[in-house]
Amino acid sequence: MASVLMVLAGGCSRTLTVDAPRPSRADARACAALLNALPRRVADQTKRRVEAGRGYAAAWGDPAIELRCGVPRPKGLDRFASCQVANGVGWFIPESEQTGHPADITMTTVGRAQVVEVQVPATYFPPVNAMVDLAPALKRTIRELRPCV
Question: Model pTM?
Answer without folding.
Answer: 0.87
